[in-house]
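hi! just following up on the protien thing from before. the input was this:
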Amino acid sequence: PRIDMADFREVFAKAKHIAIITGAGVSAESGVPTFRGAGGFWRKWQAQELATPEAFARNPSRVWEFYHYRREVMLSKHPNPAHIAIAECERRLSKQGRSVVVITQNIDELHRKAGTKHLLEIHGSLFKTRCTNCGNVAANYKSPICPALAGKGAPDPETEDATIPVEDLPQCEEDGCNGLLRPHVVWFGETLDPDILTEVEKELEICDLCLVVGTSSVVYPAAMFAPQVSARGVPVAEFNMEATPSTNRFRFHFPGPCGTTLPPALARHQTEIIS
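and the predicted 3d structure came back as:
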């Protein structure tokens, strides 16, 4: 792959449908904790021990404490230059009859905060709930999400579980339901929403430029998506801290933090006609 920005900019100037696949690396620069890898603990647990249907069935109070903590942390985080460059690019190109779609595995809504409109959140969102009884999905930005969680969720290992009774955990507000709510996120061992996957497939079939940002293309979900775009002969540009085993399948690779590499890549090209 090439690290030739001038060449990338020529491809970018001609592209009519740009698909941008983003992962945790985009949010890392906003200071969003991932709970993965060394040091990635909340209390004594890593995300994969809490973000499962089994953990929720066993201990919904503990899982809600974890997600309450993550929601509260996110309220103080802001989009970084990468999120802003993507949203700005979409806004500008839409006035030229060109489209940008963001396909993200992030659940933090920082793309939305930055102003991205055409957003496919394949893993759901920290700020949506789903009823375990009636299935209703609702946006929820309350802080705290329910009175019983106020001041709970502290991450340090000495913290005792709050052991909140189920009836005091977040409850469905649909008429007469009162079912237990869960975070509307895709947990380990769960499948992706087939409707969202269908939308993703449609976008990848029409895109004429694909960017993979802050996720290595060997790691799901980019691993599912970017190689099939590349196989169609569509240019793929990777913006990532380090090269990955599939980097050599792509036309471009730009190493470094996305907040630094992405803004110049997506800035207005001299050939763009701005009405």
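Residues 60-75 form the longest helix (16 residues).
The chain has a mean pLDDT of 93.
cheers
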